[in-house]
Amino acid sequence: MKTETLIRALAADAGRPVLAIGPLLGAALAAGTMGSIVLFVLFLRPRPDFALALQGFDLPLKLTIVACLAISAARSLAALARPLARRPISRGLAAAPLLLLLAVVFELVTMPAGSGLARLLGQNALHCITLIPLLALLPGVFLMIALKHCAPANPGVAGAFAGLAASGIGASLYALSCPEDSPLFVATWYSLAIAVFTASCFLAGRRWLRW
Amino acid sequence: METVDAENQEFRWTVLMEQSLEGDCASYGELLSSITPALRRAIRTRARQVGLDAEDVVQEVLLALHLKRNTWVRGTPVAPWLAAIARNKIVDAHRRRGRRPEVSIDSVVETLRDEGDVSEDQSQALERGIAGLPERQRQVLHAVSLEGYSAQEAAAQLQMSEVGVRVTLHRALKSLAVFFSQGNS
């Protein structure tokens, strides 16, 4: 077929509205988050002492860290979804790890000597590493589908950031019900859950988001 | 003088692309016709080095640019974006042949701006892709491309609704893009 002929076919198809990247990713994020909120309400609910703990220091700090992660990763996505790679890393991305690091240092300095391991292990590690990926699943799947309609310069990296944003959302919801507020616990188990989910999304992206 | 021309052309592409995204088919056709010679120049040398048919890659890039035109940032230059898509498709075409060359976006941008004589070519791969489409998609594609009918005219001709023609056409183009990315055999 002549290229000129193909161009006529493409031009005839130009009347279709295109899916703008911003709204597309936004819709995926909203739909996925709503889905996970429904799962949370059905199966988890906030912890019993939620209102009380919210007035403390550790729970708001934990929530800030995971919400920071979700927001900063999600904000990087629009740039990563395009073929022309610009510097995608929003500066906010460093906020969550830095805050967590500070919190861990503060805890290590102030806590009673010898209680570190007990705090790190906590009582709910298994819950944490299974429920965060489960709550991340819907946002992750929706974001991947949205990215499939884009053209990421680096499919693996785009997938990883979708995974990071999704597990940030999963962790934010899980944090509402998780009774462990120790930064050591968060730094160990939350990070592990998020890292595993993000790595899977990297691999999935590298395979499936190629265009 | 040349840089002025390049800038003019760049500006024109941006304007045409804006209009295309508003659904202006005529502007879009003009844009594609205007970028195709540039694309051909950029792809020809790279494809020949590894024995690929250049026009196959040109058509694959045109399809990709069409289906991924939502990834263009409004108001920005078209050439670098187009070069990034072309680069992806060239690398992909190489990879399918078991090689992984280094193709920098800058070098593709450079050749997009080169002047030079290029002639129209015919591609075999697309022919095979079209042959593999369902009957209806082939008819619609044939009507709007070879016959040059509008969607409305094609609808009357094929006794379909206009929406049906548009949906079928879009599906056909998507299938062709998939056909290319799977190694056009």
Description of the molecule:
- The complex is a heterodimer of chains A (211) and B (185).
- Helix content of chain A is 74%, strand content 0%.
- Chain A has helices at 3-12, 21-43, 50-54, 58-80, 95-110, 116-121, 125-148, 155-177, 183-208.
- The model of chain A has no long low-confidence stretch (mean pLDDT 90).
- Chain A contains 9 helices and no strands.
- Chain A is an all-alpha fold and 211 residues long.
- Chain A starts with a helix and ends with a helix.
- Chain A has a domain at 60-109 and 126-211.
- The radius of gyration of chain A is 20 Å and the shape is elongated.
- The model of chain B has no long low-confidence stretch (mean pLDDT 83).
- The relative contact order of chain B is 0.12.
- Chain B has 2 domains: 1-113, Rna Polymerase Sigma Factor, Chain: A (Orthogonal Bundle); 124-185, Orthogonal Bundle (Arc Repressor Mutant, subunit A).
- Chain B is built from 9 helices and no strands.
- Chain B has 185 residues and is mostly helical.
- The chains are: A mainly alpha (211), B mainly alpha (185).
- At the A-B interface, helix 1 of A face helix 2, helix 3, helix 4, helix 6 and helix 7 of B.
